[in-house]
Known about the structure:
Layout: H1 3-7, H2 61-69, H3 71-81, H4 88-91, H5 95-107, H6 113-122, H7 124-137
Helix pairs in contact: 2-3, 2-7, 3-7, 5-6, 5-7, 6-7
Amino acid sequence: MSTEETKKPLYPEVNYGSTQPPPYNQPVVNQPQLQNNPLMVTSFEGHREWTTGLFDCLADPATCLLTCMCHPCSLCYLGSRMGEHFCMPMCVPASNITIRNKIRTVGGIRGTMCTDCVTATFCGLCSTCQDHRELTNMGIP
């Protein structure tokens, strides 16, 4: 065995910035150009605020009355308006947080999961009324 063969590394170094073909005649895999992709999400921030305030419950008296009299019924109605199964709020733990997060995300509303959680937990009735008003203002029957 010659000295050149013993000094030759088992796996040659690959220089990815090089224009030379890869070792051992391996095919070059082209990576997609992500910076020109119009569908690429650049931010998870919403672009607008809620259309009504959290404590504007009396702006829609019928929904306010329904929510105050039977909060679970109001959540079921809210779930069905969003295209979920009518009983989803009764079967999914913390469904009011999940519903609020979905409305905020689909509607492009600024906020975080943490604010959704705090609002739905400590102001549950008002947040449910706000969710109903937001769906109405978004044009969802």
